[in-house]
Write a structure and sequence with these properties.
heterodimer; A: mainly beta; Methylamine Dehydrogenase, Chain H; four-stranded antiparallel β-sheet; 30 strands; 7% helix; B: alpha+beta; Ubiquitin-like (UB roll); two-stranded antiparallel sheet; 7 strands
């Protein structure tokens, strides 16, 4: 990286990261799985350099060699946790297929504008060696990589964690025990507290076919967070969130490695849960944001927001969240993490009909995944959640595809505004409408880097 | 074991012959039928097809709820043909596979088999 020639990847501190050069390209996942188009999912490279003639355009598409992976989330082989290791480089994206269980290792260093497949870890090898399926979150851990899996090889909960070495060979399971954990999903670690926290979605056999509200009542979906002893690799405390924390999905610690504060978005309850370590050394939690359900003329019950993602700015000042079914993105000032202040809101798509068209493009979904620039000023938001769930709530996405918009964020006074010069319409892709999901930048981003 | 004839109604009634000893997906795919699939263990409904006529054994599927089964859906990645069958395949056959769970709730007997069976055990 430009900021340092002697050291490893990433940045010396979150503050240094905020001073990094502006991102010029994005890598975004686009899927055909579940759309009826018999083409592989792909990694789109998007030009976001305002000086470029291709600004706001997809400039490269890397197709996977198979059909039906459902690429979903991804992560880097190395981040700022390797900053002191001059032998490491942030050169590879690790992209699991949540349905197929294949894991693709993508070389983004040889030519960042034209990434290529470096290695494939086959589903059969993962199942044979670790009995895992349904890969989700990827985090690097110094020179190793941990990937959460939601199920065993037959799609039953609770799954576990796959450990890879830096050559992407399977080392086995990361965890020594899953304890009493019922479900897996996302995780984040904060090394100075020797802690990892994990959240709960559901078994692959439950969520893959689509969402049934009745199954929440039958305890087929999660409602707990789990605190882990990171070095011992085993869970040590469970936080039962109950009705306040139905389907707790994305979980993040502050970027500041000295902070024990973190946040989780409970998707179905549409609440933000704040957790921290008390002075006595116990892990505590509280609900700090509660988004009301909204009435809809055609619905027998008010619509929940469905907060499928949260993100914390690199300076830990703002928390961003989505309401996928309502259609709004929000910005909260979390300078006081116990008392967040709503400072910005925009509408894009959603079932409430507040913004059916954005920058001339019909939006078939709602805000779903997002990635923030390191300086906190540009938020890139996509619209597809998961193919089967898209098909249930936004059936028009089949024809219209997904879209990416850019939101300009005011980092001083707070505030959000849709950038009128930017939109990527995945409905107009050469092979037909595809759906865009998670995004990463070559230089690191706000959902990758952890400091030791 | 007798050979079964499998007709794909929404692909110009193209027909295949299968032995019924392997999952239909494997048998049909190896004979050139291009259909979507994902997990290959009956857990994700990507390969769901609508059975218009005939009988299959899909007892190892774990993803379909009882309403989807009643509507004729079959997971080809685990289902084996018991008789000759006529299917519609692909996303075009998925008109009744997806429903908005808030607008159209399932009755207790329409849930997935493991939940229904558990409830019966508890009663």
């Amino acid at each position: 990286m430009m900021n340092n020639l002697c050291c490893g990847p990433g940045y010396a501190s979150p503050y240094e990261a905020t001073k990094a050069p502006r991102e010029k390209i994005l890598y975004t996942i686009a899927i055909y799985t579940g759309t009826g188009i018999q083409k592989p999912d792909y990694l789109a490279t998007i030009d976001v350099d305002p000086e470029s003639p291709n600004f706001s355009k997809i400039i490269h598409r890397l197709e996977m060699p198979r059909i039906g992976d459902e690429l979903h989330h991804m992560g880097w082989n190395a981040c700022s946790s390797c900053y002191n290791d001059p032998n490491m480089k942030r050169s590879f994206l690790i992209i699991p297929g949540v349905r197929s269980n294949n894991i693709y290792i993508i070389d983004t260093a040889t030519n960042p504008f034209s990434p290529s497949i470096y290695k494939i870890i086959e589903s059969s090898e993962i199942k044979l060696k670790t009995n895992l399926s349904g890969p989700h979150t990827v985090h690097c851990l110094e020179s190793k990589i941990i990937i959460s899996f939601l199920g065993d090889a037959k799609g039953n909960a609770p799954g576990g964690y796959l450990l890879l070495n830096k050559e992407f060979d399977i080392l086995g399971r990361w965890e020594n025990s899953m304890g009493e954990i019922s479900f897996s999903y996302d995780f984040w670690y904060q090394p100075r507290y020797n802690v990892m926290i994990s959240s709960e979605w559901a078994a692959p056999n439950t969520f893959m076919p689509g969402f049934d509200l009745e199954e929440v009542g039958h305890l087929k979906y999660g409602r707990r967070l789990h605190i882990w002893d990171f070095k011992k690799r085993e869970p040590i405390q469970t936080m039962y969130l109950g009705e306040d924390g139905l389907i707790p999905l994305e979980v993040k610690f502050s970027h500041n490695p000295n902070s024990s504060h973190g946040f989780c978005g409970a998707a179905l309850s549409t609440n933000v849960i704040h957790f921290w370590r008390s002075e006595e050394g116990n892990w505590e939690w509280e609900k700090i944001i509660d988004i009301d359900n909204e009435p809809h003329p055609d619905w027998p019950i008010p619509i929940p927001g469905v907060m499928s993602a949260i993100l914390i700015s690199m300076d830990d000042k703002y928390l961003y969240l989505n309401n996928w079914l309502h259609g709004d993105m929000r910005q909260y000032d979390i300078s006081n993490p116990h008392k967040p202040k709503l400072t910005g809101q925009i509408w894009m798509g959603g079932l409430l009909g507040r913004a059916p068209v954005v920058n001339g493009v019909k939006i078939a979904g709602g805000p779903q995944m997002f990635q923030l620039s390191l300086d906190g000023k540009r938020l890139y938001v996509t619209t597809s959640l998961f193919s089967t769930w898209d098909n249930q709530f936004y059936p028009k996405m089949k024809k219209l595809g997904g879209a990416m918009i850019m939101i300009d964020c005011d980092t001083i006074n707070g505030g959000m505004q849709i950038n009128e010069n930017f939109i990527v319409n995945f409905g107009k892709e050469p092979n037909g409408p595809s759906r865009c999901h998670e995004t990463r930048y070559p230089g690191g981003d706000c959902t990758s880097d952890i400091w030791l | 074991m007798a050979v079964k004839k499998i007709i794909i109604a929404n692909r110009n009634n193209i027909s295949f012959k299968v032995l019924g000893k392997k999952p239909l997906l494997e048998e049909l795919y190896s004979q050139g039928l291009d259909i979507p699939f994902g997990c290959k263990y009956g857990g994700c409904i990507t390969c769901a097809a609508k059975l218009l006529k005939g009988k299959v054994d899909q007892s190892s599927q774990v993803a379909l709820n009882n309403r989807q089964i009643k509507n004729g859906y079959v997971l080809l990645c685990v289902a084996q043909a018991i008789t000759d069958c006529i299917f519609e395949v692909g996303v075009e056959s998925h008109d009744k596979l997806y429903r908005n769970p808030f607008l159209d709730k399932l009755e207790p007997h329409e849930l997935k088999a493991d939940i229904v069976n558990k409830n019966i055990d508890e009663i």
